[in-house]
Amino acid sequence: MKKVLQSVQWMAFIVLANVVYPLAVGQGFNLTSHDTMMFIQRTIFMLGVAAIIQLFFGHKLYISEVPSGLWFGIFLIYAGIGQSIFGSNVDTLRVITFSIIAAGVIIMLISVFGLMDKLLVLFSPRVLATFMILLVAELSMDFVKGLCGIGYLGNTISIPVLTCSASLVILSLILRKVKKIAPYSFMVVIIVGWALFYVLGLTKPMAKVDTFFQLPTPFPFGMPIANLSMIPSIIVAVFILISTMLASIKVIRAILEKHNKTTYDVSIKRSGVIMGLNQILGGIFLSTAGITAISISSFIDQTKSTKKNTFLIGNILVIIVSLITPIMAFFTTLPTPVAYAAIFTIFSAMFGTAIKELENVKNKKDMYFSVGIPIFAGIGIMGLPKTAFANMPSSVTILLSNGLVVGIILAFIIEIMILIKNKRNKVQNS
Description:
With 430 residues, the chain is mostly helical. The mean pLDDT is 83. It has helices spanning 2-18, 20-28, 33-57, 69-86, 89-112, 116-119, 125-148, 159-175, 185-199, 231-260, 268-284, 296-303, 308-323, 325-331, 336-359, 364-382, 394-400, 403-429, and strands at residues 65-67, 290-292. It has one domain. The protein starts with a helix and ends with a helix.
């Protein structure tokens, strides 16, 4: 009975903790309730599939996959600027489809040829911190709009929605301080917020369904569109995903070894290949592609759910649940302000992670301008109106109208200059 309950607990945690991301993407791209429902389905489906593939062919650890915060951020960023750059929301989604698949292919190649450690040198704490700060800055606009109810009930701030959202953020902060509840604070906020919005009559009707059972559709918005302006984002995405995977495996392997009193032999090469494959599948079935996450460690540690069978059955249940359309339709009634409130503290904590990265920088003198210039320029471009680039060539507009991309490019240029300078100084001193 205990194993059954642990399996169901795995399933509930994976579904409830991850439904908020595709829901927010659906609102950002003004998707219909049916398209949003199918986006939720594809995301949940892929998380279950990705976890099982890693379990048997990758790192073989009992680690749940979660939606990539990185891809989620890119989805939301391009939901705001995609129409002006790519022409329409549909074309934007097709460009993102290409980007996710391309990132997956690159990760597989890097892993196959054993280049992870060699290439990670370019992604210094300066570059990673710059990216995370710019990402947080870009996302903050979407989060504030979401918490205020803009785009949910109308184009103006809704006082009831804002009050409820702010209360949920405060609740989240309080619960994270309670040791026994902290691992489940995310789900508690979702359930409480969902119930609160329902009582106040702030929820939307459930998406209509025609079938009880439905398989996910590959390339739901059409075949991928390659766009050169996405290359900087793809490159950074690759190394952020690899870094996250390596850190997550290290932390969660230690937890599993502590509880199960055994040693886990993890092949980084094999893990990377499978993660790349999962990213490709995530692109084919357009979702906020899955990634091994450190955040799952607290759930494992607190629940003691460290057995292979319960984890496997839990993820099989996740896949089954994703195929039952009435259940997926029910999740479309989750208010997006609740979703934003639940993940607000998670993404705001990314700023703290960026600061920790900068603490690892030895030469603070180089750091000030290498981080300051990209962030200053990137945030400045974020504030420019869409009409500012009206007289410029489209190829230039695609590149320069995105503050995140411009900031990343500047960070790379400065990092290369620093590496050349350090190498030159080393030669002179030897």
